[in-house]
Amino acid sequence: MRKIAVLTSGGDAPGMNAAIRAVVRKAIHDGMEVYSVKHGYNGLINNDINKMGLGDVGDIIHRGGTFLYSARCEEFRTDEGRQRAAANLKELGIEGLVVIGGDGTYMGAAELGRLGVKTVGVPATIDNDIVGTDVTIGYDTALNTIVDMIDRIRDTATSHERTFIIEVMGRDSGELALNAGLAAGAETIFIPERDTKMKDVAERIQAGLDRGKKHSLIVVAEGVMSAEYCSNELAKYINIETRISVLGHIQRGGKPSASDRVLGSRLGAYAVSLLQDGRSGVGAGISKNELTATDFTYVRVHDKQYDNSIYLLSKELSI
Ligand code: F6P
């Protein structure tokens, strides 16, 4: 393969820039021409496609977000939009495309594959909910950001002897809430994968109060309910002073951790190797520290399983 392109799509994630850099440099190192596409699939449709040199990805490895910009593209959902995207690539003689993003991004790539473009996915989302990889780019940084924020909340929760309800990202996945909750010593964690009864939560808080515990932390994944709703529901069972904190997009920004830079670099370079080997329709991943490739179809039909032992452990340790 002589010419490939790279884009980022969907929610941004720290470490995406390291992955872009790896795609560009690996491709040039191996004698290919490489192009960047700006604004996700929008850039494919609007022909925002530019040839990259080694220096074009200088000074980005340590930056959060994605310097190629990201978007959720409605037009790409239409047959016409996808035909135009594929035609633009063909016109430039680009045979392969690396897409960096979450499962929605992969599905877009699968559609392009049907139109003859060879596509490989690189998993990047703070949600860590992509099948075919133990961990996604951006997750480690976001997790550390959340834990840092909860540590700060803990200080003020202790000072005022309050219960705090902290809402974290995770529309469909409890990975961030679960592991941030364990790492920050939260008493209760609400995740979409498990049903947690508010009555039980209130009873645990009451038991803690009876033992002299003065404050507690509740972490709720946004996919379960909002922090505000949680607070109102809890008030039906127990009379305590609560405060809420919605961490929001702070979780998605910030400079990538070393782990995310390493992961982005490894997976970006591996995606190029997969295209060189003639692979298409697969997502790059890492499993038990081995690089792996998983079919898009498999990624689509399976949900990433959460680790129930983490949930149980956090319950055991935060009595
Ligand atoms: O990046 C994934 C994610 O963080 C989800 O957990 C969250 O629901 C969503 O993105 C919000 O994205 P946006 O602000 O782009 O709509």
Could you characterize the architecture of this molecule?
The protein is an alpha/beta fold. The chain has two domains: 3-138 and 256-301, Rossmann fold (3-Layer(aba) Sandwich), CATH 3.40.50.450; 140-253, Phosphofructokinase domain (Rossmann fold, 3-Layer(aba) Sandwich). It is 41% helix and 18% strand. It contains eleven helices and eleven strands. The chain has helices spanning 16-29, 41-45, 79-91, 103-114, 139-160, 175-184, 198-210, 227-234, 258-276, 296-301, 308-317; strands spanning 3-8, 33-37, 49-51, 96-101, 118-123, 163-168, 188-190, 216-221, 242-246, 282-287, 290-295. The chain has a seven-stranded mixed sheet with strand order 3-2-1-4-5-10-11, with helices on both faces. Strands 7-8-6-9 form a four-stranded parallel sheet, sandwiched between helices. Helix 7 (198-210) links the parallel strand 7 (188-190) and strand 8 (216-221). Helix 5 (139-160) packs across helix 6 and helix 6 runs parallel beside helix 11. The longest helix is centred in the middle third of the chain and has 22 residues, at 139-160. The model has no long low-confidence stretch (mean pLDDT 96). The structure holds 6-O-phosphono-beta-D-fructofuranose (F6P). Residues 11, 125-127, 169-171, 222, 252 line the site of 6-O-phosphono-beta-D-fructofuranose (F6P). 6-O-phosphono-beta-D-fructofuranose binds at residues 11, 125-127, 169-171, 222, 252. Residues 3-275 form the Phosphofructokinase domain. Pathway: Carbohydrate degradation; glycolysis; D-glyceraldehyde 3-phosphate and glycerone phosphate from D-glucose: step 3/4. Mg(2+) binds at residue 103.
